[in-house]
Fold these 3 entries.
Entry 1:
Amino acid sequence: MKSREGLIRAKRFKVEEKRRQVGQIESMIAEFERMTKDLDDQVTAEQERSGIHDADHFAYPTFAKAAIQRRDNLIASISELRERLNLAEGECSEAIEELAKYQAIAERDQERHADRAPGEAA
C-alpha cells in the first residue's frame, strides 16, 4: 500500500512538472508575440519617419531591415514553440490519465479493504 502511495506521489509530481512545462512554453509564446508586435510597430514608425516603405529601396532604413529580420526570427521561434507546446500538452494529458488510473486503483483497493470484516484475513 505504501509503495502505491509513493507511486501516486511520483505521478502527481510528473503531472505538475508537465503543467509547468506547458505554462513556460505558453509564456514564451506570449512574450515572443509581444516582441513581434513591438518590432512591427518600430518598423512602421521607421518607415513613416524615413518615408520609404519598400524594403528593396537602396535608402531603406538599416534599423527597419534589422527589426524585420529579428521579427522573422521570432516568428520562426514561435512556430517551433507551438510544436513543442503540442507535444508538451500531449505528454501532460498522458500523465494526467496515468495518475487518474493509479488513483482509481488505489481507491478500489481502499474500498475492498474497508469492505472486509475486521477479523478477516487478507
Entry 2:
Amino acid sequence: MSPALKKILLGLLVFILVVGIVAAGFGVYTVRNSFPQVKGEIQIAGLDGPVDIYRDEFGIPHIFATTEHDLFFAQGYVHAQDRFWQMDFWRHIGSGRLSEMFGESQLETDRFLRTLGWARLAQEEVKTTDPETLKTLQDYAAGVNAYLGEHTGSDLSLEYAVLKLLNSGYQPEPWQPLHTTTWAKVMAWDLGGNMNREIQLAVLSKTFTQAQLDELFPPYPSDHPYIVPGFTLGSQPQNDWSVSQPIPDLIGLFQRVARQAALLDPVLGPRTAEIGSNNWVVSGDLTASGKPLLANDPHLGIQMPSIWYEVGLHCVNKGPDCPYDVTGFSFAGAPGVIIGHNDRIAWGLTNVGPDVQDLFIEKINPDNPNQYEVNGQWVDMQLVKETIQVAGGEPQELTVRYTRHGPIVSDTYADLEDFGQKAGGDIPENYAVALRWTALEVNHMFRAVIGFDRAQNWDEFREAARSFTVPSQNLVYADVDGNIGYQTPGNIPIRAQGDGRLPVPGWTDEYEWQGYIPFEELPNTFNPPQGYVATANNAVVDSSYPYFINYYWDYGFRAKRIVELIEVGAGSIDIPYMQSIQGDAKDLNAELLVPILLQIPLDDERLSDARAILQDWDYFNTLDSAPGALYNLFWKNLLVETLHDDLPEDYWPGGGTLAFEFFRQQVDQPDSYWWDNQGTPEVENRDQIFSRALDKAVDEIEGLQGKDPQRWNWGELHTATFENQTLGQSGVAPIEALFNRGPFQTPGSSSNVNNIGWDAVDGFNVNSLPSMRMVVDLGNLENSQTMHTTGQSGHAYHPHYIDMADYWRATQYHPMLWSRAQVESGADNYLRLVP
C-alpha cells in the first residue's frame, strides 16, 4: 500500500471513528474525562501536609503549602492536570524520541535531535546539579508522577485517545528530572545562536561582494538605542573581529546542514531573528506612584496551548525552610517561576541574541573517516551509538561523531565516506562540518530560576543570574525599595579571531574559543541616571565595549519607539500607560516609506485614489485600519519587487527589522542598483519600484476586500490561528478541528512594539506574537496585571482552553493575584490536597 493511499485511508478511518464516537454520545465523555478535578479534596501519597490550591476565573492556580517539598510537588501535580500532553510531547522533542510516539514520519527529526545530543547533556547536568536544585526537580517530578499514577490514556488528555489509533501500545513513562533539564536545551535552540545566518552569509557570499553583503546586512544603526549606552571596561584592548572568508566549495554542504536544522521547525516553530521580545523598567522618578513599574512581553512562535503556564507558589509561613512567595509564568514541565515577581523583587526576560554558535569545517582522514586533523595531527573522534525506537517499525541505529568542537552535523543522514570532494586550495579532500554551541555544554539554568524566585535584592538576583548561562537573556529588575537594574548573563565566547559570521577552518587553533566573557564584565547597570532600562533585542552595548557579543542585532525600531514613549510619559507613567506601550502598533517603517510614496507621480487615477487613504494615516496598524491594510500589502510587494530578483528563494526577506533597516539605507539612493529588477529589460529606479509595488497592492486588496476602501481593514488580513503542535498539524481535517482554534483578527505587525509577526513570503497569517504581557507595580503588587495567549488548559473544549485569546488580541489584562486574601476573594475553585 502506498504511503499516500495509507494516509488517505487513515484520514477516512479517523473521520469515521470521530463522527461515530460523537454520534454515539461517547465523544462528550471522552473529551470531558480528562478535565482535572479543581474542587473538593484529593488524597495523595508523598505529601508532608495539606496543600491549598485556589484557581481564579481563568483557571490560574495559586498553591499554598507548608513545606518546600509540598510546594513543588503540587506544582508538578497541577502542571500534569492541565498540560501533560504538552509536557510529554516536549520531553520527546528534547530527547529525540518523537518516533516513539508518532512513528517513522519523525525519524529524520529524531536523527538530528540525537546528533545534537540534548538528552545526553541533560543527563550530565542532572548528575552535576547542586543538591538543593536537584531536590526541587525531584519534588516536582514526584508531583507529576502522583498524577500519572491516577490517570492513564484519554484520562490524561484527549490527544491520547487519538494517538491510540496510530500507536496503540504507547504509554507515557514516569517523569524524571532529566525531562525538565532536557527542555532547557529545547528553549536554548529556540532562542540562541546564529547558525542559519552563518550559512546564509556563506551561500550569498558566492554571489555578492562584501560591500553588497554589508548593504544587505547593515551594522546596527548608531542613531537607535543601546540598552546600556557607554558601558565600557576601561582600556582593555578589543579583539580582532575581522570577518573570516567563506569557502564557496562547501556551499552545498552548508545548505544541507540548514535543511537538517529546519526539520525542527514543524515541532518548535521556525527560528528567526525577527521574532524578538520587549521588556523595560522605569524608576519611581518617572512614574505617577513614585515606585518602579516593570513590563515584559516575550515574543515567540504561535502555538497551542500557550508556552506559558501562570502559577502562584506560596509558602504558608515563608522562612528559611520554605522561602518562596512568588507568582508569574512557568513552563509546564519545570518547577518554579521563570518570569514574575516575589514579595520583594520583579524581573523580566528578553533574548540577548549573542553569537554563541560557530560552524567549524573539519579535515577528515581519507584513510579513516573517524579521525580528523588538529594542528597537523590525526585525532580520533568520539563515537556515540544511539538506538531510536520507532512506533510500528524496527529500531534504527545511529552513530554520532564528535570532534573537539562538537557534533558533526553534516553527516546526520549519510556516512562520512560520502563527503569526499576534490575542492582545491586549502579545502581538504574529505571534510565535515561540526557545530560548536554553548548549549552543548553542561549548564544549570534551573539553578538560576530557583535563585530568582528566592532573591530578595539586587545582589541576590545577580548571583542567581550567574547560572543563567544558556540562553543569554536581557534581565530587567525592580524591587519594592525603589531600585531598578539590568544584567546580561550567559556564556558568550571569546574567539581567538573572527566575528563568528561565517564558517571557519577547524583544523588549526586559529579560530578557537578562548573562554567566555567573565560574568563581572558582562553589561549591567543599577539605578541608571536616565531612570529606565528598555530592551527589545537591540544592541546591548556600543563599540566602546571591548568584547564581541554579536554583529547582527535586532535593528532597534521597537526599542526606539519604547524609549520615545517612556520619555514622553516621564513623570506620569502608570499601569495603563505601560499597557498602552505594549499594545502600541505604530509602524516606524511606514513612517519612513509612506511620505516617499505620497510624493511619487502617478499616471493611474485608480492608484491615486487608493493612495489617498494613506494621506492622513497615523501609521498605526489597528484592527480596522484601511491604510494599514493597504500599506502592509504595499510593503510585501515592495520586498518582492526590490529583492526577489537578487536573492535565492530560500533567503527572500520576511519583512521584519532587517528589511526595515535595509530600506532605510536605500531610500535616499533612488538610483541604487538594488532598485533595478533584473527580470526586466529596463533599469528601474526607486520611484518606479514604489509605483509597481503600489499597483500590485491595490490589485491584491481589491481582490481580497473589494474596491471600496471603506471596507478595507488590517485585522481581516492579519489573523492568528492557534494550532496544536502535534495533532493540530496532522493533515487530517477532523482531527485538526478538534484541537485548533481561530482565526482571530489581530492588530500590530512585524517589528511594531505590539510585535504580532507575519512573513512576507508566506502571507499575513500570524507566525509569532507576544506570548504573554505583564506589568508589575512595585508600589502595590496587588495592582499588577498580565495575560497570555490561549488559556491555562491544554484540554480541548475545556473552558480555559482558549478563553484568553480575545483579551490577548485586544491587549487586555487580568489581575495578577498576589496576597492570600486577594487570591481567596478572586477564587472560582478551591482544591485541597491531603496526605
Entry 3:
Amino acid sequence: MLDDVRYALRSLRRAPGFTFIVLATLAIGVGANTAMFSVVNAVLLRPLPYADADSLLRLTRGTSPPDLLDISQRAQTISGIAGYRTQFFDYSTGSSAERLDGVLVTGRMLELFGASMRLGRTIGADVDRTGAERVVVLSTPFWRAHFAEDPAVIGRTLTLSGESYTVVGVLAQSFSFPGDRADVVAAFAPQAGREATARGAHTLRAFARLKPGTSIAAAQQDLDGIAAQLTREYPQTNQDVRFSLQEIRENLSGGIRQPLLILLATVGVVLLIACVNVANLLIAKGATRRGELAIRAALGATRARIVRQVLTESLVLAVAGGFAGIAIAWWLTTTIVALAPEGVPRLDAASLDAPVLLFAFAASLLTGVLFGILPAWTSGAASVANNTRFGTRLTGGGNRLRAILLVAEVALAMVLVVGAGLLVRSFAALMAQQPGFDTTSLLTGNVTLNGPRYNDIRVRAQFWEDFETRMRSVAGVRDVALTTDLPIGGLPIFHNLAFEGRAVAPGTEPEVYYRGVNPAYFRAMGIPLLKGRTFTSADRDGAPLVAVVNDAFAKRYFPGEEVLGQRIRWASGEAGWITIVGVVADVRGLSLDQDEVPAVHVPHAQELNPWRRWMDVAIRSSGNTAGIAAALRRELLAIDPNVPIVKVRLMDDVVAASVADRRFNLLLLGGFAVVAVLLAAAGTYGVMAHLVTQRTREIGVRLAIGARPRDVFTLLVGRGLALAAAGVVIGVAASALLTRVLEAMLFNVQPWDVTTFVVAAAVLMVCAGTASFVPARRAARMDPLAALRSD
C-alpha cells in the first residue's frame, strides 16, 4: 500500500497541470461541504448549554405570570416551570448613558436552565413578590468590560434605569438565554409592577422541565387540562388560551432548520458534480496509461491489483484535496457568519472544531471512492490484448461512460440553477413590493424612557414635546415622526378591541394592530390620508379620545358603512370610548411579504399604559443624514443625559434588514449554483476536448475526403449540445420534484415557475455550447495531413 501511495505521488508530480485542476475542483467541493456542516453543527447539532436539555420544553406562546403560577401548582408531569422576558436597561456612565440588553426572570429561571455561576449566587424564588429586593446578575462579558473582572463586584450597588440593584452574581461565560442576549439579569417581580399580577399580560417566555420518564405528549395533555380549567375560571382573559409545548432545540432552530438543510444538500450536489468532473478527468488520464497498465498486466498484475493502484491514486488526490478544502472551509465559514442575518441562534459558534474536521476527512475519503471507483474499474477491466493493440485510444464503452457522467453533471447543475433562479425571482418580487410609505432620507432610532422619573405619562409627554421642538429647529430636518412601533422594523403590539353596539363574549374580542403616534407621524412617514383627519396638537391627555384606522380595518369591520364617527374601545375598558376620526392607506407594518393587518393609531399623548416606555423616532431630512444623526444624539443628551438612543439607521437599511434572511439564502444558493454551472461547463469542455483528441484521425480523414471545417465544427458542437440537452431534460424532471422543498422560502413565485425553468435551461445550454466551441474550432482548423500522421 505504501508503494502504491509513493507511486501515486510521483505520478501526480509528473502531471502538475492535471493535479492542480483536480485538487482545485475537490477543494471547492469539500470546502463548501465542510463550511456548511460547520454551520449546521453549530446551529442544529451541538449540545445546548443547559443541564439535561432534552427534558427542557418551551411554551410556544407568551404566558402571563398568574398563569405561570397556576401551571406550577397544578401540573403533575413537570418538575419546574419559570419564565423571563427581555428588558432594556440604561446604564449611566457619567456623561452619557449606555443601553444594555437584559432579561427579567422569575424565581428559579436560572436554576431551571442549570446556569453555572462564575461568581456569587443565582436569583432564587425569594424574589417572586412585589417589594422584594432588586437584585441583578451580570454576564461575564459585561463584568469583564465594565469591572475588569473584579471579584469585589459582588454586593455592589448598580444604578440601572434610575433604580438601584444589588449585584449578587456573575454568570459563567458558557451560559446564554435561548435566542436572547443578556448583559444583565434582574428579578422580574420587583421590576414588573402591575404586569406581575395581570393575567391578560402574556409577556413571559415560559420554559418547563419534564419529570423523569414523562413524555411530551403526557405533559401536553396535562397542560391542556389546566388550560381548560383556567378558561372556565377566567373567561375574559383565558378564552381559547392553550399552553403548547415544544422541545427547546426545535424552538430555537425550527425557523432556520429547513433553509440550512437545503443549503447543506446544495453543497452536497456541488460535491457530486466535482466528483463527476474528476472522474471524467481520471478516465481521460487512464487512456494515456493503457500502455503502462498493459505492461503491468503482462507482468502478472491481476485486475484487482490494477484497480487498487488506480483507486489509491484517487484517494491520494482526495486527501490532498481535503486538506486544501479545509482552508476554503475556514474562509467560507467566516464569510457565512459575516453575511448571516441577525437572530440565527449560536451561529457565531461555527468553527472548524474536531467534529467538523472529522467530517472533512470522511467527506474526502468518500469523495475519493466516489470519483475513483469508475476510473479504477474501467482501467482494470481492459484486457492486455486491447491495451497493447490500441495504445492510448479509448474504447466505445469509455466514451459512453464519460457521456453518461456529463449528462448527470448537467442534470445536477440544472437542479441548483433552477433553485437559485426561483430564489432570485422571489427576492425580486419581494423587493418590488411597495411598503406604503416613503423610505427615502428617513433616519430612525429607538428611545426608551426608563426609571421612576418617567412613571408619569405627563412627564413622558413633555419629554417628547421637548424632543420634537429641538429636532425641528435642526437645519435639514423636515419633519419628526414618533411611534410606538416603526413599520417593518418595530415591535408589533396587538390589543383586543370592542365595538360600540356590538355584543361580543368576553375574551373573544378581535385583536388589532396598535400604534401610538404623534400628530406629525402620517405626514413625516408619507402615509396618505384617505378620509377624515389625522391628529393635531389638541389631541392631548384629557381631550376626547380619538383614533385613526387604516383601510384594512375599515374594510374588515365596517364594510359598506361609514367608518368615521364610529366608536371603539380596548377590551379592558380602562380607556373609555374612542372615536374614529380618520382613515389612512395601508402600509406593510410587519414585513414586506405580509399585507397590512387591521390597525388602530392613537395619539401617544393619550396613552394610559404606564408600561409603554419606548418610542421609535423617524426624522425626515433633506439629505445630510450623518449630520442629523449627530444632532439627534446631541439633542437627546441635552434633554436627559441618562436617556440613550439606539438602532440609529436609515429606513432603507431597516427594510434591507427585514429581508436579510432571504438575501442570505439567495447569496449562498446562488453562489453554489454558479459554482455548479462553472463545473458543468468545465466538464463539458473536458469531454469535448478529449473527444477531439481521441477522434483526431477520424477528423483528419473527414477533412481529407472533402468535409468542410464548418461541418466538423457543427458536428462537435452538436455533440456537446446534445449531451447537455439530455442533462437538462433529466434536470427539469428532477427539479420539478425537488424544488417543492423551497416553497416555504418563496414569495409570489411557484416552485414550478415556467420562466425560471426556461431561463435555467438556456443558461446551461449556452454554457455547454460555449464550452464546446473551443475544442470544436480547434478540430475545424486541423491540418488533415498532420492529423493522419498523429496515430
